[in-house]
Each structure stands twice: as C-alpha cells, then as structure tokens.
Amino acid sequence: MYLCTHFTSTGEMVENRLFTVGKIRECERFTMNKRGISPLELMEEAGCACADELVSEIWREDVDRIHFYVGCGNNGGDGVVIAIQLLEEHHIDNQVNLVICAPEGAHFSSEMEYQLQRWQTVSQEYENANIVYYNVDNQQSIDKNDLIVDALFGIGLNKPLTGFYADVVHHINSSDAYTISIDTPSGLFADQHTPDNCSIVVADRTLSIQFMKTAFLLPENSPFVGDVEVVDIGMEAPAELLPEKWLLTSSDVRTVLRPRPKFAHKGTFGHGLLVAGCDRMPGAAVLASTAAMRGGIGKLTVHTVRSVRDILAVTLPEAIHDIDENEQYVSHINWNKLPENISAVAFGPGLGTAKQTVSVMKDILDTVKLPLVIDADGLNMLAENKTWLAFLPPYSILTPHFAEFERLAGKPSDDFDRLERAKQFAQRYTVILVLKGHHTVVTFPDGRQFFNTTGNSGMATAGSGDVLTGLLLALLAQGYDPKHAAVLGVYLHGAAGDAYTEDNAASTLIASDLPRYFSKAILAMNER
C-alpha cells in the first residue's frame, strides 16, 4: 500500500481495509473464484483459523466446559467447524456442548446443515462431544469456569434481535463465563449504528475474520466487542475494491516518513510560526513548542505574551520569540516583523477567546495562504464565526475532540453519524479533519477516513492535544503534504504514548512526556 498515492493495494495486503458488509461479500466471492474453492471450503478455513486462536484461550484459562451457541446460518457453521477442529486437531479433553439455537420453523443454510451432519458423526466418536437444542423454558446451565463461544449471527445481521434470539443473548450475558464472539458479537451491526437497547452479546473477546469492522472502532460499541483479534484466513480483495475507511498502520506511515538529507541545514526543515498561550494558560504554548522542536522542525517562532516567553526562555531556549504588545493575551501580529521564510502556521493552544485574539484569527485567515493547523481556542473561534470556515486555506488541518467538533458541525445522533458529519465537513471546506479519540480519525477532503491504531488511555490527559498541534506544525514546516503530515503526526503521537507505556504505567503519563518519546516511536517504526 502506498499512502503517498491512494492507499491502494496490490491484493496481498487487505487487513487494513475497513470494508462494508457488501464489499466483504465481494472479497469472499473473489477469493473463492481465484482459488477455486467452495463456500464450504472457505468456511472450513475460517473455522480452522479461529480454532487455532481459541485453543490458546482454552489452554491459558482454567476452562471446564465449552458451550458453542450456534445459529442457523453460516456464522453457526463457522462455530461448528471450530468445535470439530478443537476435538479432532487440537485434541482437547474439555466437554464441548454444541447448543443449536433455532426457533420453531427456522431455516438452516445448506452449509450449516452440512456441518451439523459432520457433528453428528464426531459426537459419536468423542465422549466429550455433546449436542443440545436451546429451549427457552429449559436453558443450558453455564458455570463461571465455562467458556462461551458466540456463533449465533455474523456480519449479515441488519435488524435487531427479538423474541427467541433476544432470549438467547440474555441467557449468555447473564452468565459469568468468559465469552468469545466469532466475527462479530451477535446482535451488533458491522457497518451501521445498532439501535439503542438492542440485544447484543457482551463479548470479552472477538475473533474478527480477515477484516476489522468499523463498528469495533467506535466508542458506542466498546461494551460489546472486548479485545479484538483479526484472524487471517487468506482472503483476498480485488485491487480496485477500495473502501472509504482504512486502518492506519505502521506500513502505511513508513511510506511517507522521509529520511533527513545528509547535507541538510536548519533551513532544510522549515520555519514554523506557533500562535499560542496567554497569561492564564502558558503550558499549552510550552507543550506545543516542545513538540514542534522534537518533531524535527528547523526553526520555530512562537508569537505569545511576555509571561509565556519568560517560561519558554528557560524550558525551550531553541525557540524564537515574538512578543505580543498585550501582557495578558495575544492581540496583534506584526507580519512585517516576522521572518519571510515562515513555511507553516499553527494557531490555538491556550490562547483564550478575548475579542482582540479573535481578531487575530481573522487576520491570519486574511493573510496566511499556507495550510494551517488549528486547535483548541482556534476551533472555538471558528465555531462562533462559522462563515470564516469558507476562508480556511485548502488542506488546513483542524484537530477537534468530540465536543469541539459538535460545536462546529452539530450534535450527531450516534458514532456513525459523527463519521458522516466529519466526512461532509472535510469535503465542504476542503480541510483535513483530525477527530481526536481512542481511535483518532483523519478525514481527507475526498472522503477517505483513516482510523489510527496507536495510542492508549494514558494519553487522555490535559495537554495531549497541544503536543499533537506542535508535531503537526513541525511536519508541515518540513514540507510534508498536509495529508501525509496529518496521518504521520497522528500515528507518531499515539506511538509515542505507546512507547512510554513500555516502561511505565499508562496512568502516570503526562503530556510533557510525549515529545521525549517521539524518537523511540520513530526508531521502532523504522525497525519494523
């Protein structure tokens, strides 16, 4: 895959594509046609791969019995294959109960019928193999040390579970047993919002077959999916089958991370202008400035108030200072006093929203033709003056968290609606939107969205966003294309947080730790 072109694939790497259910079905057909295999054979490969993952859980935990709750469709067929594999190939001695969940008159898929016939044979050969039919009035007992495998419904589900199946889900969720869902927790929609108060299996772990599902990356679904493991079954996708949503991985980011020329000088790596800080919030400017310098920028000029300059002079002597005439907040920028070689501008951290500071932002929009990085109070100013959005330089990078984005684009009805609003916003204003969260989403003006895969809960701390702003400024100043700067900055920002947790508890991380770990994150990425 090549980030610098279109994130396209040659066919051998598909694990970072976030396909819709319809496109996953296309991948299944493409794989079967290319390899000359049947749906049953593809099901067998999926079941074998999941069994390999599942057996480690069985051996690691003190598991008494294993209950496979299987539905009538192909997800149920996957579950039966897994159960057979555990007995025949992995030779487990736990009792394996196949719990058939089929209301009266239910239709079994042909593949599921075939697998049930196989189970009838297997259950005669293995004393620890058993089959029962789920009965609402006479439910299978589940003990705390048992293991539940949820194979009721897969990604094809598009309506809420009710009646019989809702009862099965309630029965599973009422137990204290560890639960593993196959492909997706039953009841959860894979690529659209699942209505509130629906019956959904609460999984401790989800074995997602071949592809991560968009639903797994959204906060609203975190109570259901548990730890997600993508299980590779060798499925392929046509090279032309390109989704709008992607996972952002190290292999992608490596394609845009540039080596530093041997004979470079400080002018090679650009000159950035950071407009940040006020007398009440000096730390934001310090954090963003430090991140910019650690991010590889050649020179950094910080326009701020005198009290912030005094702190920077001690903590970051490498920065150049441009002092505002106002003692409390930024009120005016004299562009004639600034160097002519400014190559990127960042605006927002710790500025406050004084009337004169708001005027400075309008002045920047009228004056600066370079892509901007806008964060924090800069975003709040835009939210109060939405007509200014039309004057943003193309491919400016906006970095809101959820609340800031709601002020810009309205309150979403759910997490999928938020993604759609982000897409529409980026397209309408030709900007790059960095929607911050556990899986920060970078949205390009062409509608593509990239879910970051680095970072941890320790980064949910004051000032973390200011560090990201400084890093993005550094990358823009060095001449990175804004799209590349956005994804590289987001990835490295999270990777620095991950590098910190290699030696420290996540709960002890503070924002000023992050710039010190940029180096470790870059080295690790280059090694991979």
How does this model look, in words?
This protein has an eleven-stranded mixed beta sheet with strand order 1-9-18-17-16-15-14-13-10-11-12, sandwiched between helices. It has a seven-stranded parallel beta sheet with strand order 4-3-2-5-6-7-8, covered by helices on one side. With 528 residues, it is of the alpha/beta class. Helix 8 packs across helix 9, helix 11 (377-384) runs parallel beside helix 12 and helix 15 packs across helix 16 (518-527). The protein is 38% helix and 15% strand. It is elongated. It folds into two domains: 17-243, YjeF N-terminal domain (Rossmann fold, 3-Layer(aba) Sandwich), CATH 3.40.50; 250-371 and 445-527, Ribokinase (UDP-N-acetylmuramoyl-L-alanine:D-glutamate ligase, 3-Layer(aba) Sandwich), CATH 3.40.1190.20.
CATH architecture of the largest domain: 3-Layer(aba) Sandwich
Shape: elongated
Structural class: alpha/beta
Low-confidence stretches: 1-13
Could you say what the CATH topology of the largest domain is called?
A: Rossmann fold
The largest sheet has its strands arranged as 1-9-18-17-16-15-14-13-10-11-12
Major sheet summary line? 11 strands, mixed
| Ends apart, CA distance between termini | 15 Å
Q: Which bin fits the share of residues in helices?
A: 25-40%
Number of domains: 2
Q: So what's the CATH class of the largest domain?
A: Alpha Beta
Radius of gyration: 27 Å
- Could you report the average pLDDT, rounded to the nearest whole number? 94
